[in-house]
C-alpha cells in the first residue's frame, strides 16, 4: 500500500517535477518545430549533395570525380549533421512561476508585498523538498 504524502511535500514534488516551456511557445508548436529543425538541415544537405553529384554524371573524366567529392565534402562539413540543433530544457515550474510574479510586479500589475508573499511561499515549498531531484514523469516531447 502506498504511503500518503502530506500536501506540502506533494506540492513541492509537483513544483520540482513539472516543467514549463521557457521559450514562450505553446507545446504543439514546440513538438512540430523540433521535427522541423531536425529535418531542414538534412534536407538541405541532400539537396547540395544532389547538385554536386549532378556534375559527375556522364562520361568519366579523370579527376572530375575527385573534384566533385572534395567539393561535396567541403560543403558538407559546414553543415554537419542535425546534431548542431538541440532543444533547450524547459524551466522548472517553481522558477517559472517566481519569474512571472516578479514580472507582474515590475510591470505594475501586482502589488510588491503580495507578490513577495507568494514568492516566499514557493521558496518554502521548495525547501520542504530539500532540493532532491525527483524522477521525471513528464510526458512532454
Key terms:
mainly alpha; 2 domains; 5 helices; 2 strands; 62% helix; elongated
Put the structure in a nutshell.
With 141 residues, the chain is mainly α. It is built from five helices and two strands; from the N terminus they run H-E-H-H-E-H-H.
Summed up, the domain count is 2
Report the radius of gyration as a whole number of Å. Answer: 26 Å
Euclidean distance between termini CA atoms: 32 Å
Approximately how much helix is present in the residues?
55-70%
Low-pLDDT windows of residues? 134-141
Structural class: mainly alpha
Main sheet? Answer: 2 strands, antiparallel
Strand fraction equals: under 5%
Number of helices: 5
Shape: elongated
**How do the helices and strands follow one another from N- to C-terminus?**
HEHHEHH
Strand order, main sheet: write it out.
1-2
**Mean pLDDT level:** 77
Using DSSP, what is the number of strands?
A: 2
Q: What does it look like?
A:
The protein has 141 residues and is mainly α. It has two domains: 73 residues, no CATH class; 65 residues, no CATH class. The protein contains five helices and two strands. Strands 1-2 form a two-stranded antiparallel ribbon. α4 packs antiparallel against α5. The protein is elongated.
Amino acid at each position: 500500500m502506498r504511503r500518503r504524502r502530506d500536501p506540502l511535500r506533494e506540492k513541492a514534488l509537483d513544483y520540482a517535477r513539472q516543467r514549463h516551456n521557457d521559450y514562450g511557445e505553446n507545446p504543439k508548436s514546440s513538438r512540430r518545430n523540433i521535427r522541423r529543425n531536425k529535418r531542414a538541415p538534412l534536407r538541405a544537405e541532400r539537396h547540395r549533395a544532389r547538385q554536386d553529384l549532378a556534375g559527375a554524371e556522364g562520361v568519366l573524366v579523370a579527376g572530375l570525380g575527385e573534384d566533385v567529392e572534395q567539393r561535396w565534402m567541403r560543403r558538407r562539413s559546414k553543415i554537419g549533421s542535425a546534431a548542431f540543433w538541440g532543444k533547450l530544457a524547459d524551466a522548472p515550474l517553481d522558477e517559472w512561476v517566481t519569474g512571472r510574479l516578479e514580472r507582474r510586479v515590475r510591470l505594475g500589475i501586482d502589488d510588491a508585498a503580495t507578490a513577495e508573499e507568494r514568492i516566499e511561499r514557493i521558496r518554502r515549498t521548495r525547501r520542504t523538498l530539500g532540493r532532491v531531484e525527483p524522477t521525471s514523469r513528464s510526458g512532454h516531447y
